[in-house]
Amino acid sequence: MKKKFWFKKIIGFIILAVAITSLLGFIVMSLWNSVLVAVLHVSIISFWQALGILILSKILFGGFKGRWGGHRGGGWKHELHEKWHTMTPEEREKIKQEWRSRCRVWGKSNTEQNAGAE
Fold first, then answer.
1. Is 23 a residue whose pLDDT tops 60?
2. For residue range 41-99, what is the model confidence (pLDDT) as tens digits?
3. Does one domain contain both 60 and 3?
């Protein structure tokens, strides 16, 4: 029973990976052919060339970071969480007040900000 379950799961994962890769390749090909050909006058690319561009972008820029990529264990979120829990209540309140004042500024127009600064 367990072997059948894992076999189905692996086959499903492979099918899903192929479907997602095909979809991404098709999107890259379509965007390239509809935008870059008209704007930059480059050649039209095929589906396989689009997949090559995806792989090249992964190698050069390290994109597509999802659950398995990036920092293990939460990265910056984990560090921020630890820092927050080691603060004193006074430090926490000071941070909260600072962010409240920052957020209030975002909602104001430039004239309101200038009037408040004077």
1. yes
2. 999 999 999 999 999 988 888 865 555 545 455 678 888 888 888 999 999 999 889 88
3. yes
Specify the number of domains making up the chain: 2
| Residues across the chain | 118
DSSP letter for each residue of 14-82 = HHHHHHHHHHHHHHHHHHIIIIIHHHH-PPP--HHHHHHHHHHHHHHH-----SSSS-GGGTHHHHHHH
In a domain, 63, yes or no: yes
Which structural domain range is residue 55 located in? Answer: 1-70
Per-residue pLDDT band for 34 (boundaries 50, 70, 90) equals very high
